[in-house]
Every structure is written in C-alpha cells, then in structure tokens.
Write a structure and sequence with these properties.
This protein has 366 residues and is an alpha+beta fold. 23% of the residues lie in helices and 35% in strands. It folds into 2 domains: 232 residues, P-loop containing nucleotide triphosphate hydrolases (Rossmann fold, 3-Layer(aba) Sandwich), CATH 3.40.50; 41 residues, Beta Barrel (OB fold (Dihydrolipoamide Acetyltransferase, E2P)), CATH 2.40.50. The chain has 8 helices and 21 strands. Helix 5 links the parallel strand 8 and strand 9.
C-alpha cells in the first residue's frame, strides 16, 4: 500500500487558523496516529486527506498520485481517492441491512451483482460478521456496528484506511477488545492507516508512529516510546499521561549530562540532554514510574531524598502516590500501597528529559 504525504497544509475557518503549515508522511503499511485534544486540527487533517474538506494551501499525495495541490489547483474528488474512511458516528444507513450497507460503496462504483455479493461476503467474514448480513444496524451492538463500518470502508479495496475516533462510542472494555482486534487486522492486511484519537492509551497501544498535535501544529512526532519518554514539550508530556515537572538552573557536568538545581528540592537532579544545551533556566519532565521509592535508610544507588506520603490512590494494578519532597509535590506509582509517612525517593536519571514551553512545529516530522 503506498504512503501518504502531506506538505505545508493550511486551513482556516473564518478568522480561526485550524491547520498551520503541517507536514508529515505516513509510511507504507504503517499505522500513524494523529493525537491531540478537541480542536487541535486532527480531524480536519484526516478529512482533508479523505477529500471531504479542501485545505487553503499545501499538497497531499498518495504514492505517486497527487490528491491535492493548491498551487496546481488540483483536488481529486473523495470518491476517486481510493481511500476507506470510518467515521466516529459509523454513519450506517438504518433502513439498510448490514450486507446492503457494506455493498453501498460498491454499488455507487457500479460493480456487477456477482462482484458485489462476493466482496460483501469476503469483508463481512474478515470482520467476523458474515452471519449477520441480514440484520439491521439497530439489532447490533456498538462493537458490531463499528465492525460493519470498517467492512464498508474495506469493501471497495481501498489503498489506505482513515479512521476518525472509531472507538469513541464504545464502553471501556469493548474499546480494549476492539483496539486489539483492529490492530491485528491492520497488521495482517498491511494497510497504510491514519488513525485519529484523543485517547493516549489508544495511540500508544496501536501506533507505529504518533503525531502529537496542538493548535493546528505538530508539536512532537516519533514512535510511541519516543514521544512518551522524550516528549520534548510540556504540552506533549502532559497529554501523553501523568508527568512531574521540575524547574531550576541547569549546568553541564559531562558531555550530554547535566544537573538541575531547584530551590524547592533538597538536592540536584541528574538528566541527559543534547550537548548544545546552554547552562541556565530549564525544565525537565519525569514520569511517575521513574520515581523510585524505598524504605527510609534503604541502600540505594545515587542520590535519594526523604519524601512525605500525602495521599495514595488505588488504581487496580497499581497505586498512585502523592508525595511532598521539599517544597515540591510529586506523583509516583508502585505496585504496593504506602502508609502515610516518610519514604525515600530517587529519580531514574535516564528517564528525566528536557522539555520546553515552545509549541512551534516539531522539526523532525515523519
């Protein structure tokens, strides 16, 4: 399946700039997620690729085909782009059966009766709903409706798949199952896929690459592990889960290694950053799981500080602890509860990363 590329896309609705010169590539056979809050531009981007809205500027290509080019005034109609789209609402026709819904994109392409019957049977079997071809949408569960929408998107043999928050109408447990099922199907088909979500768990679990969006810009791009462990900006760090931020004065102690000294902490924090970092004011991000907890007096490597346990929350497979360290309040996780009192805390120096408040578009986009 060919890659999808967008270059310098812009889009405004009235005075509001929704897309601000964004560029990225979705590699062949990979699933790339557009992740961000409501209003960040992710669905607008997806609908521009699908051909359902027209950017003000930029280009969109799919393999060798140019789908949109503002300079050349080229804009291929949506029905000619060979893309499969699954909408957030599923958009199933309530008066049509499952089979008729799936057949719809084939009929508008004037496929023959035998071809329609064969292809509908194939894709319904693929999504494990061949036995419900004669049912109507209201007779199906939410998860089954979602699979019908996916079958319809696959029916005409698209060269790429576009998914707009397809799990948002499902309950938590069903979302988990649907996510695993769809991820496996995408890998088996080897289909180039653009996935839109505001759910960081979905993005981390399903993606080959993640594009974090905010205010119409891409503020971080990379593999799930890269964007989680090295978010680069305060916004990306906060959006991809819980995070502690420590601010102070940084000074270099070795090539690529620094110490952060903050007035509200009892000691410095070691972290790694590019060697080009200038000494001075800096902020680092530390995930709660990178705060290492131990009993007072325990022998640990590296610097450790006393911390006061303020509150503990049980979250099923782990506990979230709120701790006071000096004048700083931090969050940490562990697999066991902690009694209110004093513990030792140390920071995994390999997990502390430099972040900025700069939300300009990330340089190393895909």
């Amino acid at each position: 399946m060919p890659e999808i590329s967008a270059h310098e896309l812009t889009k405004s609705f009235g005075p509001t700039r929704v897309l601000n010169r964004i560029s990225f590539t979705v590699p062949d056979k990979q699933l790339v997620t557009l992740l961000g809050p409501s209003g960040c531009g992710k669905t607008t981007t997806l609908m521009a690729i699908a051909g359902f809205n027209t950017p003000d500027g930029g280009t969109i290509s799919h393999g060798e085909r140019v789908l949109f080019d503002s300079g050349q005034r080229r804009n291929v109609p949506a029905e000619q782009r060979d893309l499969g789209v699954v909408f957030q609402s599923y958009a199933l026709w309530p008066h049509l059966t499952v089979g008729e819904n799936v057949a719809f994109p084939l009929r508008i392409r004037r496929a023959g009766r035998a071809e329609v019957k064969r292809r509908v049977g194939e894709v319904l079997d693929l999504v494990e709903l061949g036995h419900r071809a004669d049912a109507h949408p209201h007779e199906l569960s939410g998860g089954q409706q979602q699979r019908v929408a996916l079958a319809r998107a696959l029916a005409h043999g698209p060269t790429a798949l576009l998914l707009d928050e397809p799990f948002s109408n499902l309950d938590a447990k069903l979302r988990d199952r649907a996510r695993e099922w769809l991820g496996q199907l995408q890998r088996e088909l080897g289909m180039t896929t653009v996935f839109v979500t505001h759910d960081q768990t979905e993005a981390l679990a399903m993606s080959d690459q993640i594009l974090v969006m905010n205010g119409g810009r891409i503020v971080r791009a990379g593999s799930p592990e890269e964007v989680y462990r090295r978010p680069g900006s305060r916004f990306a760090a906060q959006f991809l889960g819980r995070c502690n931020f420590l601010t102070g004065t940084a000074r270099q102690i070795a090539d690529g290694e620094y110490l952060l000294e903050a007035d509200d902490l009892p000691g410095p924090v070691r972290f790694r950053a590019p060697a080009a970092l200038q000494p001075g004011f800096a902020t680092i991000a530390v995930r709660p799981e990178s705060l290492l907890l131990s009993e007072p007096g325990a022998d640990v490597s590296g610097a450790c500080w006393p911390a006061q346990v303020i509150h503990t929350t049980f979250l099923g497979d782990h506990y979230l602890h709120t701790l006071r360290v000096g004048a700083q309040v931090l969050e940490a996780v562990s697999t066991r509860p902690l009694a209110t009192g004093t513990v030792q805390i140390s920071i995994d120096e390999t997990a502390a990363s430099l972040v900025t408040d700069d939300e300009e578009e990330f340089d190393n986009v895909l």
